[in-house]
Design goal:
The complex is a heterodimer. Chain A contains 3 helices and no strands. Chain A starts with a helix and ends with a helix. By secondary structure, chain A is mostly helical. Chain A has a single domain, classed as Non-ribosomal Peptide Synthetase Peptidyl Carrier Protein, Chain A (Orthogonal Bundle). Chain B contains 11 helices and 12 strands. The two termini of chain B are about 40 Å apart. Chain B has a 7-stranded mixed β-sheet with strand order 3-7-8-12-11-10-9. Chain B has a 3-stranded antiparallel β-sheet with strand order 4-6-5. Chain B is α+β, with helices and mostly antiparallel strands. Chain B has 2 domains: about 270 residues, BirA Bifunctional Protein, domain 2, CATH 3.30.930; about 30 residues, no CATH class. The chains are: A mainly alpha, B alpha+beta.
């Protein structure tokens, strides 16, 4: 079964978001240390919104939200839960 | 202060500056001529800045208020601030196109549709032209580089606030080197800038800031910039105490420009850059606001700083 983490990793594989291969990084690895730039974070956010059909509210539009696969998974999970409850 | 009250205060200050013949209106919000007195304040302030920073060995570079379009495209400016950019367009047609242009103009219709982009773009910030120049010189020396730039800059944000002009000047010192070198430089100028402005007798505070990035993506860029404390501003109240005006800014660009133009430090690493920017019109406006429209009546201690 494809997990949310797998789908997030797909986005990194499909777009050139990081200068390194996402497969070399663990879910808890710091993506900024791995070379994630501010502008790449914007592309990442837009790709996540498209893939999961969610919209990041202003309070989540910050650096910490995208600092690792784990952090992204938590944010996307929260948005998916909200969508399911709506 | 409500938005209406703020607009009223801005309009009143603008009208007073015009009435005292310090600014000359040109019929477009944010576009003004400057009087001799206004220019003298700016010239004196620039000399004051040079007295504080002039012994650091900065290389002086003066560019016209426009840059090479390709450099502008490479800079990433359009990713962050598409709404502020000013591109220069010209007529590039033949006789028939010229005839059509004249006819459209006479009918007072939009004649600009046929204008084509030139290779020239208005300078968005005074430091933009210098990065490709430095990159072309090859690796930086071990102690990096320090450049003094001063230029008119254009930003498309028409406003009745005289402190938000569309064409204004920035004086900047720009440091290019390792992260440690440029961070030390920025802290030096936070201290110097605060000392310079304190001695000019204006109320001020230094605070974390963000640039006016465009759109929803911009919200995130702004939050990132604040989280990482990449930008500080020295703020002085001009038309509002609650919303003071940024007159100086202290910016750490990380390796953004170093990466874009492949500027290398002596050891081969990507160069980091930082700059201190003085918004000289805003500083003059702050001085007129706090010390009055007659420079001869300014406090002697302030006059001594400028007219020594």
């Amino acid at each position: 079964m494809t997990t949310v983490a797998d789908m997030i990793r797909d986005i990194f594989r499909e777009g050139s978001i990081l200068p390194v291969d996402i497969a070399t990084l663990s879910d808890s690895a710091d993506l900024y240390t791995a070379g994630l730039t501010s502008h790449a974070t914007v592309n990442l956010m837009l790709s996540l919104e498209e893939k999961f059909d969610v919209e990041f509210p202003d309070r989540l539009l910050r650096r910490r939200t995208f600092e690792s696969i784990d952090a992204i998974k938590a944010a996307v999970g929260e948005l998916l839960d909200q969508k399911a409850a709506a | 202060m409500t938005a209406d009250a703020l607009s009223a205060a801005q309009a009143a200050f603008r009208d007073a500056l015009i009435a005292h013949r310090l600014l000359i209106p040109m019929g477009v919000d944010g576009l003004y001529g400057r009087s001799g007195v206004f220019e003298d304040v700016i010239e004196r302030f620039n000399l004051l800045v040079s007295r504080h920073g002039g012994n650091d060995g900065a290389e002086v570079m003066r560019f016209p208020p426009a840059i090479n379009r390709r450099d502008f495209e490479d800079s990433g400016y359009l990713k962050s601030f598409p709404q502020l950019a000013g591109t220069i367009h010209s007529f590039m047609g033949n006789d028939r196109d010229h005839q059509a242009l004249i006819e459209t103009l006479l009918k007072k219709e939009d004649w600009t549709a046929g204008q084509k982009a030139t290779q020239v773009v208005m300078t968005p910030a005074a430091c933009y032209p210098l990065y490709p120049v430095l990159a072309a010189r090859g690796k930086l020396p071990a102690d990096g580089a320090l450049v003094d730039v001063y230029s008119y800059c254009f930003r498309h944000e028409p406003s009745i606030d005289p402190a938000r002009m569309q064409l204004f000047r920035q004086r900047e010192y720009v440091r290019i080197g390792t992260a440690d070198q440029v961070m030390a430089f920025r802290q030096l100028w936070v201290d110097r800038g605060t000392a310079i402005m304190s001695a000019l007798g204006v109320p001020l505070e230094v605070d974390v800031a963000n640039d006016p990035f465009f759109g929803r993506a911009g919200k995130m860029l702004a939050a990132n910039q604040r989280d990482q404390t990449l930008k500080f501003e020295l703020l002085i109240p001009i038309t509002s105490r609650e919303k003071p005006t940024a007159c100086l800014s202290f910016n750490y660009h990380q390796d953004h420009f170093g990466h874009v133009w492949d500027i290398r430090t002596q050891d081969g690493g990507t160069a980091h850059t930082a700059c201190v920017g003085f918004g000289v019109e805003r500083i003059a406006l702050a001085l007129f606001k706090h010390h009055g429209f007659d420079v001869k009546a300014w406090p002697q201690a302030v006059r001594d700083q400028l007219w020594t």
